[in-house]
Every structure is written in C-alpha cells, then in structure tokens.
Amino acid sequence: MKFEITPNVHWVGKIDWELRKFHGEEYSTHRGTSYNAYLVRDEKIALIDTVWKPFAREFVENLSKEIDLNKIDYIIANHAEMDHSGALPELMRHIPDKPVYCTANGVKSLKGHYHQNWNFQVVKTGDKLSLGKKELVFVEAMMLHWPDSMMSYLTGDAILFSNDAFGQHIASEHMFNDLVVQSELFEEATKYYANILTPFSPLVTKKINEVVALNLPLSAICPSHGVIWRDNPLQIAQKYLQWAADYQENQITIIYDTMWDGTRMLAEHIAKGIKQADDRVTVKLYNISRSDINDVVTEVFKSKAILLGSPTINKGILNAMAALIDMIAGLRFKNKKSAAFGCYGWSGESVKILTDRLAGAGFEVISDGLKSLWQPGGEELAQAFAFGKEFAGKV
Ligand code: FEO
Predict the structure, then answer these.
(1) CA dist., res. 141 & res. 338, Å (int)
(2) 215 pLDDT higher than 90
(3) Which of 95, 148, 236, 374 minimizes the number of CB atoms within 10 Å of its CB?
(4) Is residue 148 in contact with ligand 1, taking CB distance under 6 Å?
(5) The whole model's pTM is what?
C-alpha cells in the first residue's frame, strides 16, 4: 500500500490495525497505529524512515514494487527506535552500501541495535542534502523523544517530516488530519503527548519556537505515527506549545483502588464534596485496577489536581496504584495539586506513602490526606464529603 502526499512524495509505511500495546506492554493503542515511511523523488531519491521489524519483509517487498531499491540514493533515519528502524536490516541486505543519514546519536543507537557498520552519514541541525531541485534540511530534536531524534524538512514541497513529534497512535484508511474524526484525532494526540512527551516539555517549547522562527513555508507535517497534518498543519504545533506549558483544564481526577469498597466509598463522597464546593469543575473517578493506565495518565495530564486513594495492604499500597504512581513520577508533571486518601484496618500506612510519593513526583500536596479506619460508615463518609469540599476550596 502507498499513497500520494504530493506528486513526488509518497507514504510507503505500514498501517498496523491490530496493535493494542506499544513499547512492550507500556502503552495502550486502542486504535492501532501506523509506522510511516516516506519516499521522496527528485533527481535523487530518498527514503525517510522504515517500519517495525515484524513488517520488515512486507515493507521491503512493497517498496521494491514501488521502486527499484537500487535507485534509492539516500536513506534518512530520523530516529533509531525500532518501530522506525526495524526494517533497516532487511532493506540494507538488498542495498548494503547506500548511505544512511542520521545524527551522531543515531549512529550509536543504530549500531547498538543492529551491530552493523552501515555507510552512516552524520548530520546536524542546518545540514542540507540536495535531491536535485529540492533539498532536505535536517533539524536535530534531541530528547524529542530520544537523544538521536531529528526532523527533516523538504524544501519546495514545504513538508516537515517530524518523526515521533506530532504523532498519534491511530490506524486509519484516511491518513490526513482533515479526513478523520477530530475528537478521536485529538484524543490520541493528547494521550501521545501526555504519556510520551510530558517529561520533555521545556525542550518541546524550545524546539517549536526555534523551527517557527525559521519562518519556513509549511504545507504539511508528516509524523512517523498516525495521520498527516495537511489542513492547517501548525495547529498541532500550537497545541504542543499549550500542552508544554504545564497544561491543565478545570478538572479534578480521583484515582483509587479498593479491596472491599471502603476506599471506593470514600472516593465517591470526596467527589460529591468537590461538586458541592464547585459545580463547574469536571470531576472524574477511576478505579485504577479496572482502568487503562495510559488513559488515566492522560486524565492526570488534563487535571489541575488529583486525589489518589488506596487502602493499606502489607504496610503498603495496592499494586495497580503503585504502578500508576511510578508512571506519573517518571512523567514529571508540573503545576498540579494533590492529596491522598484511603481505608485501613491495622497499621494504615497507605495515605502517608501516597502523600510522600505525590510530593516526590512533583505534585503540590495541599492536604495531610484522609485516613479512614475499617469500613466507612455515616460519620466517615461525612468526613470524606467535607474533605472533598475543603480540597476543592484549596485548588
Ligand atoms: Fe515511534 Fe520513538 O518511536
């Protein structure tokens, strides 16, 4: 399968309708994904990125129907992560001497992954590769999201091949942003930013401003996952600038786990208290052990405050909550308030553990938290209601 972006630029990647977990088991992909590779024809011919290894043979077979592989002059590896470089070994088996353009860190990563001494050509920001009438201009994008990441800009067609940046995990027969359901597109783009790019937000701002300052014409942004931004392509860059600025909506998210429903009852009464204090705020509740962790992380990203609840077990917290707090600590959210709650029967450490971990993860803890002994009754539920009300007043 291929499709045209401009008469001399074609998508030659793979749409992966089946994928439900990405990065091993770390990232849920409810809508599948695509691995986008692009073939650019001018007097010289360049291939930008490849696909994940399971599709390597299919990719090379399809590519060879599209073009005699020996006619490819340049291979551009914008990013060495295996979802984009995974078909390189298969491709290079056919054309072993062709130059592979990547950053210095790209050479390290590609050698580290595949242990091959391909004909690497190291590029840095501002370097140009003439294709004849048009040029590829390279822009390093270190830590967006790997040390080796870079983007390539095609003059004339005015296309930015942005690799992971601006991507979304979506499989679609309509690979352009103006053809897909907008709510789905932005839901996936937000989830992608929240779960992958949040830790690098200061770099996102810097890099986008750097690229925008170049004042280059832009007809499309072609990311390495999901749909191509051809309708108002800068809209996604503007969204990224918003998301990178410690984004929050008027939302409080309550995330809990529960053994015998006590902590769930606290969560629900806290929510009622919040609503009474502020009926305009969006309040969402998630039982983390019954929810998709990446979807919950996306809700954390959108929140101005979160509450985490777990009962105490073995002087600790329940394991789904432990996984969540590990994940959000790594994502280094900023400008979010928080507090903890939970039931206990014997020792009751959970609230302190959650409070300490929230503080350690960069959340502003605005309350000592709510501990409730045994199963909450009327009095304890009234306390939870008051706790929610007080919390909303401080947010
Ligand atoms: Fe889509 Fe960083 O790989």
Answers:
(1) 33
(2) no
(3) 374
(4) no
(5) 0.97
